[in-house]
Amino acid sequence: MGISTDLSLAAIFFTAFLLGLSGALMPGPVMTVTMAHVHRRGALTGPLVASGHALVEAILVAALALGAGGLLLLSWVNGLTAVIGAVVLMWMAWGMFKESRTNNTDQTATTSALKTGPVLSGILTSISNPYWFLWWSTVGVGYFAVAKVWGIWGIITFFIGHILADYAWLTLLSTALARGSRLIGSKVYNFLLRGLALFLAFLATGFFIYGSRTIIALF
Predict the structure, then answer these.
(1) Are 39 and 170 in contact (CB under 8 A)?
(2) Contact present, 143 and 7 (Cβ < 8 Å)
(3) How far is 87 from 110, CA to CA, in rounded Å?
(4) pLDDT at 113 over 90
(5) Cβ-proximal residues to 197 (8 Å cutoff; 6+ apart), any chain
(6) pTM to 2 decimals?
(7) Rg of the Cα trace of the chain?
(8) Can you spell out the DSSP letters for 53-104?
(9) Average pLDDT, the chain
């Protein structure tokens, strides 16, 4: 028997959770914006960012169920996503940098450069990450095929297990950071925000180079 007939729904859930956790623990744009918003939003930042991320993944899983998996394998789609994503991430990085220069850590402030909010930040950092698409076009599509054997319940079980990993990690991260932020002054917070902005800019540069090379290679 193949693996697709051996996995029970419980096994699909737990393996999807562990697989999702392995990806969630890797530093990237989603984790970065979570850290950036914690000082203003507190421990709720993690669930809010995860909700934005979950919304995008729910749409993608629905698209896969409708047979759109082949679209993720197209080189021009991945390349274009990387270039557009680079622009979005660079814009967010600039917003963080401007925020770090305000020296204002009032959580009720309305002049924050982080105007996207944690939910929208979760959405933007998901769709702007070409490696997120790459993961889904390889590992994700393969595991989706395994879960699909059980029909709609297999797909739902796979998605719940996968997305709970993001909720678990980002909630744990934001809770820990929120407790520590009470001891952080404005100067330290602004220094941290600049570091996060620099990291996003670094990722954006890498995404732009990757996307440009991918698109150029098609001609």
Answers:
(1) no
(2) no
(3) 24
(4) no
(5) 93, 94, 96, 97, 100
(6) 0.81
(7) 18
(8) HHHHHHHHHHHHHTT-GGGGG-HHHHHHHHHHHHHHHHHHHHHHHHHHTS--
(9) 83
| pLDDT class of 111 with cuts at 50, 70, 90 | very low
Helices (H), ranges, 149-185:
152-181
pLDDT value, residue 103? 52
Contact 93, 201 (CB under 8 A): yes
* CA torsion through residues 192, 198, 201, 206, sign: negative
- Taking the C-alpha atoms of residue 187 and residue 185, their distance in angstroms, rounded to an integer, is 6
Nearest to 124 by CA among 55, 41, 23, 214: 55
Distance CA(17)–CA(118), nearest Å, equals 23
pLDDT at 49: 96
**Which amino acid is present at 55?**
L
Domain ranges of the chain: 3-103+115-216
Total residue count of the chain as it appears in this document: 219
Amino acid at 150: W
Contacts of 67 (CB under 8 A, 6+ apart): none
Render pLDDT for 155-205 as a digit per residue (tens, 0 to 9): 999 999 999 999 999 999 999 888 876 656 667 777 877 888 898 899 889
Nearest to 16 by CA among 165, 166, 170, 162: 162
Q: Which residues contact 26 (CB under 8 A, 6 or more apart)?
A: none
pLDDT, position 112: 41
Q: What single letter denotes the amino acid at residue 69? A: G
Q: What is the pLDDT of residue 195?
A: 87
